From TrEMBL:
Domain Integrase catalytic: 1-148
GO MF entries: nucleic acid binding
Gene3D superfamilies, per database record: Ribonuclease H-like superfamily/Ribonuclease H
Protein's name according to its UniProt entry: Integrase catalytic domain-containing protein
Biological process, per Gene Ontology: DNA integration
Superkingdom of origin organism: Eukaryota
InterPro entries found in the cross-reference section: Integrase_cat-core (IPR001584), Retrovirus_Pol_polyprotein (IPR050951), RNaseH-like_sf (IPR012337), RNaseH_sf (IPR036397)
Signal peptide per UniProt: none
One Pfam match: rve
Length: 289
């Protein structure tokens, strides 16, 4: 889950879009919002669950609208587990970020022409869900509903009444078999696409081998005036725990900063701290005096 915006205000004073993407099918759910506060986002999450049912886990960033008590209570009431990505690691929400890029590409012409983007949003969402994914080789609509969507220009098929199931049980069995075939193909195609992506990324990756007790610098995003002249790293900090291969728990030796959540390893670089030693000539000068 993520928030897309802000955009130009629509006729209904909406400036944001709440987006939710299914991790398996890439099915997109989007609803316009006036504000990105916790109450508006909680209402959007509740509407999402009312349309598609309750899921087991929702993944989002650490935005104030997602970590607020209101949002947490909604998920707790519906028995939905919340997971948060590390801060400043946008690739951890790659599905939402890639969807936002597609939304921006398709909404830009309407925004530039001063047209109401909110009126075109349902059509854009439908087009995204109807496109065939390059990784799974299926559209999100077909994975969820077990059939391809009908368009105004779709060819009309002659209905053969011999193929129509006589009862509901036969219809459900045929639909279940069709969905199982589609989802097995999606699993295989997705694994192949993930393997290719990992091989491509590992060619240019520089692994950072950390151990407990190492000193590291933490990258930051400078803001405000003169940000080009600000430091892009803070620290040094000390590694206290490695809960996973990608997450690191830090401690500030000075005690000025408290790390409540682990940080991603891509934001770190080793800090080579040298202990100052007195040079020999300093001792000689002291002896002469």
């Amino acid at each position: 889950m993520d928030i897309f915006g802000p955009l130009v205000s629509s006729n209904n004073a909406n400036t944001y879009v709440f987006t939710a993407v299914d991790a398996f099918s890439n099915f997109l759910f989007a609803v316009p919002l006036r504000n990105n506060d916790a109450i508006s986002v909680s209402q959007a999450i509740f509407n999402f669950f009312c349309n598609f049912g309750v899921c087991s886990t929702v993944i989002s960033d650490q935005g104030s609208e997602f970590i607020a008590k209101c949002t947490m209570e909604v998920c707790k009431m519906l028995n939905v587990e919340q997971e948060f990505t590390p801060s400043m690691m946008h690739h951890c929400l790659g599905r939402c970020e890639r969807t936002h890029r597609t939304l921006a590409e398709r909404l830009t012409p309407y925004v530039l022409d001063n047209k109401q983007w909110e009126e075109m949003l349902p059509g854009i969402v439908f087009s995204i869900n109807s496109c065939v994914n390059s990784g799974s080789k299926y559209s999100a609509f077909e994975i969820v509903y077990g059939k391809r969507p009908n368009f105004p220009l779709s060819p009309s098929y002659i209905v053969d009444f011999k193929d129509i199931p006589k009862d509901v049980k036969t219809y459900v069995e045929n639909l279940d078999a069709r969905l199982n075939i589609i989802r097995e193909h999606v699993k295989l195609n997705t694994l192949v696409a993930q393997r290719k992506m990992v091989e491509t990324e590992n060619k240019n990756a520089h692994e950072l081998d950390l151990t407990v007790g190492d000193n590291v610098y933490l990258s930051r995003e400078p803001v405000g005036q003169g940000r080009k002249f600000q430091h892009i790293y803070d620290g040094p900090f000390t590694v206290t725990c490695l809960p996973s291969a990608h997450l690191v728990i830090l401690r500030d030796p000075t005690g000025k900063r408290n790390f409540r959540r682990p940080v991603h390893i891509n934001r770190l670089k080793l800090a080579h701290i040298r202990v100052p030693l007195p040079a020999p000539y300093f001792n000689l000068q002291t002896d002469e005096k």
